[in-house]
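Okay, can you check this protein?
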Amino acid sequence: MGALRVGLIQTRTPATHAAALAHVAPLVREAAAKGAALILTPEGTNVLQKDRALLLPTLTSLEDDLVVAGLRDLARELAVWIDIGSALVRREDGKAANRQALIDPSGAVVATYDKLHMFDVDLPTGETARESATYEPGDRAVVVDTPFARLGLSICYDMRFPALHRALAVAGATILTVPAAFTRPTGESHWEILLRARAIETGSFVLAPAQGGFHEDGRGTWGRSMAIGPWGEVIDKLDHDEPGVLIADLDLALAAKARAAIPALSNARAFVGP
């Protein structure tokens, strides 16, 4: 395995699809111009709107989504891989999904993943969230082969569940995608340490493009997109919550090196519960 240049896109996604595409497209072009072969966008790349009554009527299937179509065109034009961290879409059964989509350089959607873990919380700050009131959770973990590495897909709140990321690594993933729209209180306390923990536990690269700043719908997100190496080192990060592009070069051989040094994936033993 050799080197891979990745581009992590940090956005402040607007509350309409047309505005969201106009926002993210120039950042994707910037990443491609800087040599990124794999470009990753955050959770909620296609639209962010907290009000269910306003959001749900705007959702379409993944195939019909304006932003997804625009990013597929860009992947084809720029000859790059694009991982849409998630698009908020309507499922085949009419329910809503928080869905990640990996696009190859031909513009084809080669894999999708529906967020498994719903962010249903009551934070000490008084902030609450009930993601399950809007979205139907997925029921399967997803790994996907690319010419450069096997990717394991996850989204935001999923990062708090080590078993998922271990399963992805055991299935051969050496790059874990963790696109997010992390809240500001939890981001300040937990964002970096959770990402680094998932990398260390699995001996994997962790790529975490994030939403950042204060959005049209009133939410605040943490930003601080980062790329983590398989030894837990921060390869590079954005130290702010403004829209931007993070370019990172990955030495893909380091995953095998980390797993050989600390063979936690193979050393794990079954046990009887308490």
Observations:
- The radius of gyration is 17 Å.
- The chain has a mean pLDDT of 96.
- The first strand starts at residue 3 and ends at 10.
